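Appendix B. Chain record.
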Amino acid sequence: MHRMIRNMVNRLTNMNSEAGVSRLPAAKPLSRLRRAGSALVGTSLAVAAAIFATGLLSGEVSAQGYPSAGVSLANYDLAASGFVTPAGVPPIGTPGMMGMSGSPVMPVGYNAYGCDSGNCDALPMQACMDRMVCGTCGGGGGCSCNSFLGGGGVLGKLRNGGSACLFCRGAGCTACKELPFGYAGSCLASAVSLLRPYEEAGICNQRWYDVSLEALFLDRQIKSAGSSVITQRGSGPSGTPVLSLSDDGLDELEAGVRASVAFIWGVGGNVELTYMGGNEWKEGASAQADVIGTNLEGNLYSFLSDFGTIPGAGGFDDTDRSTTQSIEARSRFHSAEFNYRRRTMFPYCRFQSSWLVGLRFMRYDDGLRYATQGQTQTTIGPTTITQNRFFNADADTENRLFGPQAGFDFWWNVVPGISVGLGAKGAWVQNDVDRAVQISANSLATQNAFDGDQRGTILADLELKGIYRLSHSLTLRGSYYVLAVDDIAFGSMDFQVNGATQSIVPGNLAYDSLTLQGFTVGAEYMW
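Structure tokens predicted for this chain:
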């Protein structure tokens, strides 16, 4: 480079020297002055060009897209590459403008929706975009604040492998305030995009999850559970019922859990392990006597004496003429499944279904406690004696059902990321029943009795369900769920007391149909 400059200067000097010794007639002073000025301008331009070229080859270039210092540009056709944005020109977010015409290559700094980060592509709305400039909201703020809960916000970051943030170091929802109401308007508008599910998997995505966890809310219904009267005020047919089995309050929703894991087992197949249950119902009711006699006896009579008519007037000393009688019912539910499921996709991907076969275990425990309390005061001569009278009966029944099952489900892929479906299963199971009864009374020592039974029965469940996909890994799900069992043994007060041996003999087990129904809400996770 220095040699180039030296040659230019020498050439200019030689030209001046030749002009001084020329044999031609001497030029006019004005012509000589014009030639000297032209030579001076030419020399200045040559020196400036040399300096500029030196800077290009040895220094850093500030325009976008240029290589860093020390990289030769000899083989670069910078003007024709299409990858250079003039310095100082902001990114423009409209396809087909500046660099797009006639070329499939989009220049650096240009994006389909105006953000270098790329997070704004295909968003349904530009909720808090600050006009056309992405950077005014901070670090691609249009992309970050675009959708506080949607594609560019918390969910967008999760979908793109980032971490969720609310304000995002100044690039979040509240960074832009172009909409009415400032921060609030921006966030409210962008929150609408939360309604849009994760769609990248497409409508042909097959149903799958690795882990599913749901809260399970069920109520308990017994087919023939009616208003069987336990206690009434007054004896005989003229008495008023005040306590019945329907007062136990076990028809309320109680919380449990449903958890499932799935493992791939061949093409289109998987093995599922599912636990459902943990629901516990425990309620009770009581009645108080409204008349207390001078001998402290009440007017409550029990079903055990046919309300004071057996064995004679006044009933039993333990259970009748009570001041307080109460019942307490309790139930517990558990279920476990091991299934092989095979999935099928219908043509055009709008529908898909699966069938399954497996084993089902279910346990249902039912208990009933009945208690009475009373007093009798007698006076013998100068002595007054008060006798406490009581009766307690507690029956616990365990049902353990096990057998093979089969089922299916059917899904409608409404749009990518949203599906609704129907599922059903049925099982033929054997029910092993164990019962334990314990009785204590003021006229009877504590007695225990145990018995059991075994019989076959059927169970079936039905589920209406839906899923909403938030990201590649996370999906929300919910369902309406019903489980019905034909024959379940329940806790009952059916027993007899052998007065001669002071022992109890349990009566026949009471069987009835059980229905558990409610809803689930939870999430699925896929690795």
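Further analysis of this model is presented in Appendix C.
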